[in-house]
């Protein structure tokens, strides 16, 4: 499929999604929002995709929102690329529940959050605004020594978006989340590492190989259905009120996966000292209780 803002390549089970507007420092626009959501839709639907890497073309990861509309950039009702917003606005009255009011960055982060494949960020350069917040629902974040990160929203007169008020405190803790978001300052990769936002800082030449090594390790050694469940169980338990919620889901997962062909293969391959060949696929073999959080009365 042809993309306007992305480059997507699949190799050895690893889908690499490259933000590809290097002349604009990969600034985020409506087309990128739509293409990222579609790329993750396709990743989930394609059993050949076992892991996803997200990186940027050129010297930036993503410089934030495309500011080419100037003062109208964050005024959706005034922009010429958001005609649907008109239905939510009547004079000074806004229908806050209308779909058109939703934040575009939040649509992307929620799609990544719901992904069934592991997602690794390879932060090759500056990641600012939505370029920083889209990183938060990714599972493992690696950064180049040239990366600089900033949650700059307060300095632009707006607020953190893309669900970052939920993600950022859970990833780095409330105090650091508030410091970074309230000051809006841009900080180096070393501070991101110290704060737990990234797992490792690497020379630029080693960044993608390191991300790929992690992705391939998962793709070649782990059962796809187990990885999908693992990912959703961990993320969704961040909002659980009691460990009993985890126990309920863990019990379902162990019971259903324990009877699967994958579990049998996992044990037998270990005993026979050979690589495992997992046959179950995400498109066909997710357990009948998934997604458990959509069950009536779960909330």
How do you describe this structure in short?
The chain has eleven helices and eleven strands.
What does this protein structure show overall?
The chain has 299 residues and is an alpha/beta fold. The chain folds into 2 domains: 6-218, 2-enoyl-CoA Hydratase, Chain A, domain 1; 223-294, Lyase 2-enoyl-coa Hydratase, Chain  A, domain 2. The chain is built from 11 helices and 11 strands. The strands form 3 sheets. It has a 6-stranded mixed sheet, with helices on both faces. It has a 3-stranded mixed sheet with strand order 7-9-10. A hairpin with a 2-residue loop joins β4 (89-90) and β5. The model has no long low-confidence stretch (mean pLDDT 93).
Low-confidence stretches: none
Strand order in space, largest sheet: 1-2-3-6-8-11
Helix content: 25-40%
Elements, N to C (H/E): EEHEEEHEEHEEHHEHEHHHHH
Kindly name the structural category: alpha/beta
Q: State the total count of DSSP E strands.
A: 11
Number of domains: 2
> Strand share of the residues?
5-15%
Please name the fourth-level CATH homologous superfamily of the largest domain.
Answer: 2-enoyl-CoA Hydratase, Chain A, domain 1
Radius of gyration: 20 Å
Multimer state: single chain
Element layout with pairings:
Elements: E1 6-11, E2 14-19, H1 30-45, E3 51-56, E4 89-90, E5 93-94, H2 104-113, E6 119-123, E7 127-128, H3 130-133, E8 140-144, E9 148-150, H4 164-172, H5 174-183, E10 186-188, H6 189-194, E11 200-202, H7 204-221, H8 224-237, H9 243-258, H10 261-271, H11 282-285
Parallel strand pairs: 2-3, 3-6, 6-8, 7-9, 8-11
Antiparallel strand pairs: 1-2, 4-5, 9-10
Helix pairs in contact: 1-2, 4-5, 8-9
């Amino acid at each position: 499929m042809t993309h306007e803002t992305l480059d997507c390549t699949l190799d050895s089970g690893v889908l690499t999604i490259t933000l590809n507007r290097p002349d604009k420092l990969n600034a985020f626009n409506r087309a990128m929002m739509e293409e990222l959501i579609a790329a993750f839709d396709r990743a989930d639907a394609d059993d050949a995709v076992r892991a996803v890497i997200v990186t940027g073309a050129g010297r930036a990861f993503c410089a934030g929102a495309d500011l080419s509309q100037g003062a109208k950039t964050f005024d959706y009702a005034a922009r010429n690329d958001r005609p649907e917003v008109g239905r939510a606005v009547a004079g000074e009255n806004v229908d806050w529940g209308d779909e058109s009011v939703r934040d575009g960055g939040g649509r992307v982060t929620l799609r990544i959050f719901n992904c069934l494949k592991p997602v690794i960020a390879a932060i090759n350069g500056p990641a600012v605004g939505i370029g920083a917040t889209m990183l938060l629902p990714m599972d493992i974040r690696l950064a180049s020594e040239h990366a600089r990160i900033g949650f700059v929203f307060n300095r632009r007169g707006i607020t953190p978006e893309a669900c970052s008020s939920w993600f950022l405190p859970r990833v780095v803790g409330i105090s650091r989340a508030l410091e970074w978001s309230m000051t809006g300052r841009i900080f180096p990769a070393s501070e991101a590492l110290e704060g737990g936002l990234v797992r490792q800082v690497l020379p630029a030449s080693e960044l993608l190989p390191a991300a790929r090594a992690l992705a391939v390790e998962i793709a070649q050694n782990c059962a796809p259905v187990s990885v999908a469940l693992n990912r959703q169980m961990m993320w969704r338990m961040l909002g659980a009120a009691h460990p009993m919620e985890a126990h309920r889901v863990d019990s379902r997962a162990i019971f259903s996966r324990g009877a699967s062909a994958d579990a049998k293969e996992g044990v037998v391959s270990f005993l026979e000292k050979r690589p495992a060949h997992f046959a179950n696929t995400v498109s066909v073999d997710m357990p009948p209780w998934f997604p458990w959080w959509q069950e009536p009365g779960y909330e």
